[in-house]
Amino acid sequence: MEKSFSRSIRIAQELKKNISQIIQFSLKDPRIVTMITVSQVKISKDLSHAQVFLSFFDINQLSNVKKTLIILNKSISYIRKILCKKMKLRIIPNIIFYYDDTLIKGDKISFLLKTIIKHNKYTDSIS
Questions:
Q1: What is the mean pLDDT of residues 48-72?
Q2: pTM
């Protein structure tokens, strides 16, 4: 029977916390101009690979998001070096950063639902 709070979940939570701190405080790249939030970390069962999903505060230009992801993916070795000092793990997972657009999709769905509700209220008041 699998534990309800497995080791991989705890490590993923610690990675999320530490990576967000590293991006916010230790990464001093002037090309990164937007605020970055680590929304989720998915880690493999053998703890050797981690997918880090990021959301950006200012997403007006998709090209800036792509450039920021390229910059972050090039600085993975530096981030892993700092993670080695912060976390007491035998193997620090290989990290790959991905863009998380679930907030944008959620806003679009919410907007569509609101317009449907308004449309239904309008058509109900006419009939």
A1: 86
A2: 0.80
* Residue 10 Cα to chain centre, angstroms: 17
Q: What is the DSSP letter of 24?
A: I
- Characterize the bridge pairing of strands 49-56 and 36-43: antiparallel
CB 99 within 8 A of CB 64: no
Contact 97, 52 (CB under 8 A): yes
Class of residue 15 by CB neighbours under 10 A (exposed 0-12, middle 13-18, buried 19+): buried
Mark out the alpha helices in 62-127 (DSSP H runs).
Answer: 62-74, 76-86, 102-126
Domains of the chain in start order, with CATH, are 7-100 (3.30.300.20)
Q: What is the pLDDT of residues 67-109, one digit of tens each?
A: 999 999 999 999 999 999 999 888 899 999 999 988 788 888 9
C-alpha span between 21 and 38 (Å, rounded): 9
